[in-house]
Design brief:
Structural class: mainly alpha
Helix content: 55-70%
Distance between the termini: 52 Å
CATH topology: Ferritin
CATH class: Mainly Alpha
Largest sheet: 2 strands, antiparallel
Number of helices: 9
């Protein structure tokens, strides 16, 4: 692993610029959609405290999104307007389970635990990154993500133990969220992730980061007797059904074509209030 430090994208080694940009954009896209879903569940949660937590987590995610977009803009020249307003639906690199509105509270708990949890593992992998523009702000994100995981773990345990209906709903939602999250994490040996490791952009091999997530998620689900599609394997945890990454696209981090609901983008882009966008109309 490289011990060099890179103060800007211009200093990154050959072949490293695009992998760094792609990873940051995938994290930003996923945070944007998480923020939307957390926000949409500010009302309708099972308890007042859950409303407050959902609102707070939504604010965190959009705050993180602004930091990531500012970094991508400064380092790679992609403006926030371009990243949100101009891209085609099939160019977004969010985790696929965030493509559609969440149907039930168990879905919220599942994305909060598994999808947000996977993001947190990747963010910890960016701590002390050799890419200084990311290293400068990622610690703050990781600290705020701890509150998200505490909320997710609390609700996961509650639904797992409340009654048979909530347990069944949680198992279904967990399988629904976990598979696309693992797909988003990608294969163990893709050249893009190896390039990030080689130059110290991430602080551990990608397979180690992915395994950290699986071990954490598998142990939690096992403790609560929830079958989420992860099984013990040689002292660790592994997916029950391995993912075929033969056609994995590293840009959008999916194995098959897909895209978010245009209705969600309609709200994220503020299209409903287009005439009020400041500085965009004469």
């Amino acid at each position: 692993m490289s011990t060099a430090s890179f103060s800007s994208a211009k200093d990154l080694p050959n072949g490293c610029r695009e992998p760094v940009r792609s990873l940051l954009l995938a994290i930003a896209d996923t945070k944007m959609f998480l923020g939307y879903h957390y926000g949409e569940w500010t009302f309708g949660t099972p308890a007042l405290e859950a409303c407050i937590a959902a609102c707070s987590m939504s604010q965190d995610e959009f705050g993180h999104l602004r930091l990531l977009h500012a970094c991508i803009n400064t380092q790679f020249g992609d403006s926030p307007d371009t990243l949100i307003e101009k891209r085609l639906l099939n160019e977004f690199a969010n985790v696929a389970c965030l493509d559609r509105p969440l149907a039930k509270w168990a879905d919220f708990v599942a994305i909060n635990l598994f999808t947000d949890g996977a993001l947190t593992v990747i963010l910890t992998g960016l701590q002390n990154s050799s890419f200084a523009p990311v290293a400068n702000f990622v610690d703050k994100m990781v600290e705020e993500e701890k509150h998200h995981l505490r909320n997710a773990q609390g609700w996961f345990r509650t639904l797992a133990n409340y009654n048979s209906q909530t347990q069944a709903a949680l198992e279904e939602a967990s399988r629904w969220a976990l598979s696309p999250t693992l797909e988003w994490l990608g294969p163990l040996d893709h050249p893009m992730m190896k390039k990030l490791e080689q130059h110290g952009i991430i602080n551990a091999p990608w397979d180690v980061l992915r395994q950290r997530f699986l071990d954490w998620a598998g142990a939690l689900a096992y403790d609560q007797n929830i079958a989420v599609g992860i099984k013990p394997s040689d002292g660790h945890w592994a997916p029950v059904l391995p993912i075929d990454f033969s056609y994995w696209n590293p840009v959008v981090r999916r194995c098959t074509p897909g895209q978010p609901d245009d209705g969600i983008l309609y709200h994220l882009r503020g299209s409903k209030n287009d005439i009020f966008k400041l500085g965009e109309h004469g």
